[in-house]
Amino acid sequence: MPIPPRAQGKAYVRSEISTPTRKYSIPIQQLMYAEQASGLSLLIGTVVALIWVNSPWAHVYHQLWGTVLTIDLNVLQISLDAHHWVNKGLMVLFFFLMGLEIKRELVHGQLSIWRQAALPAIAAVGGMILPTLIYLAFTWNSEGATAWGIPIATDIAFALGLLALLGSRIPRELKIFLLAFAVADDIGGVLVIALFYTRELSLWAIGAALVLIVFWLGLRRFEIQNRGIYVLIAILLWLAVLKSGIHPTIVGVIIGLLTPAHRYYRYEEFTYYAGRLVEEARGAIQQGEHERTSMLLGQLEELTRYTEESVERLERLIRPWVSYCVLPIFALANAGIVLSIEGVEAALGSPLALGILVALIVGKPMGILGGSWLAVRLKLAVLPPQVSWSHITGVALLGGMGFTVALFITSLAVEAVSLVSEARVGIFIASITAGLLGYFFLLLYGTRPPLQEQELDDKQKRTVWAIILSRLCARK
Q1: Which InterPro entries match (predicted)?
Q2: If we measure between CA atoms, which residue out of 83, 87, 90 comes closest to residue 69?
């Protein structure tokens, strides 16, 4: 994604104060919000995990993520190993960002209008149903059948990163379609995790979580703006859901969806009140009233903050942390696959790994493309401007990259160590294959404008050639 305008504006102001900031601030911000860099950080975490676990220091890797960390609050004790702290704790930020994206798309984006939402939504449904059926066809009556949720979701970081590598050759509408499709895909993935990968339930903990959500909504209703209160409720909600038996990462999505998606002050209101504050501050400066000047500037700062949507502000602040901290650590903790010819051959001979491979490489693209075609055929949706079926096919191939959420569901659905290893090998190979297929397909076939916009009818062609010939004759 490009630099958010608010972040870019703040960088420009800082650049006027500091020479190093002037030289490095904007390039660093461009790097922080670039899809390529985000996908690259995830890739680096994956490569480091692979090298580490296949090195003589593999025992250090397993000891690190097996280290048990305990928080004892007297009334409540939480004891998890480092691997589960990452998956159940740190990944809440990833799902929080996902919830913010879903909220933004539902309120302002491609999912806010049915006509616009139909194509990516139906494509996402097709991209969930078909790979699930293919996976179950391979694993039916086996121990791996419970992991049918693995091929459901698309890794948006890798997919957008590869799409961004194609630059301006890809229409902007295609990137918007991919983002909307991935958000709809994520909604399905979150529902699957919440409904089907929850074991024993604690009713008192669920009740406590519901009370906290109602309390949050009450604070929102009375426009309470104290951020510390909301952070405290978020922590308590995470603890309640953790004890309930539901996977606590769902808390991130819930809080993201509860975040306001409107501005408290419209731009017109801001300019009116800000103008008055500036005039008062000018008078206070002239009279040497430094304390009053500082107070007025504080009002102006707070007024400026409330012209930005909470969803937009939190997404802007959290995205770099998720992209360059949370996801690489998650990859480091979950991508430790022992690679050997014998191990890969054994994994590829298992129904679980084969099911993942075929589901992601074949089922996912077919489901996305079939859902898109059905939506257009039934006239529920139309292709976006500048987007052709070649573009949709390329995005459908990229949809087979199920790395992050697939590994996450593996940690929930599979318990046997041998099956976890097989699943990881299948996810790893399928994601690489799908990414390469999608990238090179778009590179070869998806960078041209749609046929209907590229070609002219015969009459228009004759007119164009007549103009060209007349100009050539005039030059002679």
Answers
A1: Na/H_antiporter_dom_sf, NhaA
A2: 83
* Max Cα distance, the chain (Å): 95
**For the residues 180-191, what does the mean pLDDT come to?**
80
Q: Residue 412's closest CA among 135, 62, 146, 181?
A: 146
Instruction: Return the pLDDT at 345.
Output: 79
Do 385 and 460 meet the contact criterion of CB atoms below 8 Å apart? no
Return the SS3 of 66: helix
Could you give the angle at which helices 172-196 and 114-139 cross, rounded to 10 degrees? 50
Q: Please give the model's pTM, rounded to 2 decimal places.
A: 0.73
The model's confidence at residue 17, banded by pLDDT at 50, 70 and 90, is low
Alpha-carbon distances, residue 143 vs 146, 255, 412, 415 (angstroms): 7, 35, 14, 10
Domain 34-198+247-263+308-475, second-level architecture: Up-down Bundle (1.20)
- pLDDT reported for residue 299: 87
At 384 the pLDDT is 83
Closest to 264 measured CA to CA, from 235, 225, 228: 225
pLDDT score for 5: 62
409 — pLDDT class (breaks 50, 70, 90): confident
pLDDT computed for residue 382 by the predictor: 86
- DSSP secondary structure string for all residues of 187-241: HHHHHHHHHHS--S--HHHHHHHHHHHHHHHHHHHTT---HHHHHHHHHHHHHHH
Pick from 53-67, 240-254, 458-472: least confident: 458-472
Tell me which DSSP letter residue 141 carries. T
pLDDT digits (tens, 9 = 90+) for 73-88: 777 788 888 988 998 8
- Which tokens sit at 40? 């690259």
Helix (H, G, I), strand (E, B) or coil at 329: helix
Phi, psi of 77 (to 5 degrees): -125, 130
Side-chain-facing half-sphere of 243: CA atoms under 13 Å: 16
Domains of the chain, by residue range, sit at 34-198+247-263+308-475
Torsion angles phi and psi, residue 141, rounded to 5: 65, 20
Residues whose CB is less than 8 angstroms from the CB of residue 271 and which lie 6 or more positions away in sequence, other chains included: none
**Angle between helical axes of 203-221 and 250-258 (0-180°, round to 10):** 20
pLDDT of residue 422: 87
Instruction: List residues bridging with 80 in a β-sheet.
Output: 69
